Amino acid sequence: MSDPENHPIIGWEKETAVPENHQFNSYLHAKNGHLHMDGLDLAQFFLNEAPQGFERTLPSPLEIVYLPQIRKQIHKMMQLFADVIAELDYEGAFHYTYASKANAAEEVIRTTLSAGAQHEMSSTVDVDIAKIMIQRGLLTPDRMVVCNGFKGPSSQYAANILQLRLLHENLIPVIEDLPEISPLLSSGQTFNVGLRQKSYGPNETQAEMDQANSRFGLHTDDIWKAADYIAAAPNLTLKMYHYMVGSQLTDIPAFISWLKPGIELFARLRQRYPSLSIFNFGGGMPVAMTLNFSFDYHEFARQLLTALQEACRRYNVPVPDVMGEFGRYTTSEHGAHLFKIIAAKENGSERPWYLIDGSIMSSFPDSWALSEHFIVLPLNHLDKPFQQVQLGGITCDSDDVYPPKPSSSPLYLPVETDELYIGFFSIGAYQEMLGGVKGSKHCVLPEAYELIIDKDEDGRFQFQILQGQHPDDVLRNLGYAV
Q: What is the mean pLDDT of residues 268-294?
């Protein structure tokens, strides 16, 4: 067995069979030789035995969208911050906000809103999505809508935000650049406003922060200028300070140390602008994308709130409400992509090649572009011996392989390949959006069927099938008359 300290664990790492009832993580376990996801037998979607309440087999490849996992993530983080707030006697509130760029699918936005999340957006089409959700009664007046992203005075995004304000009062445009203030000021509408600090990266002092090479946010001098402009405006109120330092951060002391310059500046701003009441630490909250992931969410929340208490005490100002923008954390674990192994080739290689009936690099662009790791497990034959393999997609591209080429993580799959199905897990954030929805993919492979799964109030599974692409759809996308 390989040393788990030196590489991400992406699957089973033994040549022996997986023990009965082995728990891989919080939602995947082995039972009767099959992989179960929160009680669902995933192999059964392809076999002739109907799983729980589902009466047909589906083609491979197949995308799984498991909505209960989204609600679970949101409620877990809300409860965790509530517990820490009580422990520390912290006098502010916590606002869980979904960062919609991670996955803007209708079923995802619907689920995050129904689970109680605030909503964050970053483009003009996001505004159109918010309008639809308001019309449906899902984006209710009590929910904050945080408008991140560039919104210059002549942009469609800025114009669309002004239109959204007519439908939703609880809107917070976050200023990235000083000219973004003017459309809000001249609109005549009242706005709560946020300011984003130029802060992305491992900066532990204000000087380092101001020297950071980032296209996002305002230099400290411009933060103070913007705050003065907003305070002088009759229709604008400074409400939020936005300070994001990175993505998928797993080192808690480093995470907190990078946030501290912003916490310090927030307290100074709060002395001059009493309306400032929300500290938004942006993203960065990590999520388990491999099986050896470890992060103490409770300890992070405790250190963050403690740092806010100490800074605000020094400056004699009230502690703020705390907001986090959770994208990957919210959606990563709800998505899975299932494939059939269609060939096993020795090919004179050190390890055999297993080929899937789809593409790795177009289904999970981060594995190709960023050498990102995802969990890979067989759906059946878990009770059979395993061997170390190389996994390849069906395209003719030399980069369509897994694990990623620079990776030192081994991949083990069953020796038995007859009717063998495998799944990639924790792929629900960014991967589909980066690869494109209903678009033509690399090597013109049709898009897979999608199975959306939810539970009713009695815990019974509910299923919705979204049709995959036909080859004619791909041809039409590319301009061929068929």
A: 95
Token readout for 73 is 């993530």
Query: Which sign, positive or negative, has the C-alpha torsion 152, 153, 154, 156?
Result: positive
Q: Mean pLDDT over residues 227-234, rounded?
A: 96
The answer to whether residues 356 and 339 touch, using CB atoms and an 8 Å cutoff, is yes
Q: Is residue 304 within 8 Å of 256, Cβ to Cβ?
A: yes
Q: Residue 337 phi/psi, 5° resolution?
A: -130, 120
DSSP string, 253-295: HHHHHHHHHHHHHHHHHHHH-TT--EEE--S-----SSTT---
What mean pLDDT value characterizes the chain?
91
CB 281 within 8 A of CB 322: yes
- Specify the amino acid at residue 303: Q
Length of the chain: 482
Contacts of 8 (CB under 8 A, 6+ apart): 289, 290, 292, 373, 407, 409
Using one digit for the tens of pLDDT, what is the confidence trace for 304-356?
999 999 999 999 999 999 999 999 999 999 999 999 999 999 988 889 999 99
Amino acid of residue 292: N
* pLDDT at residue number 446: 72
pLDDT surpasses 50 at 380: yes
Looking at residue 3, the DSSP 8-state letter turns out to be: -
Q: How far apart are CA 85 and CA 158, in angstroms?
A: 36
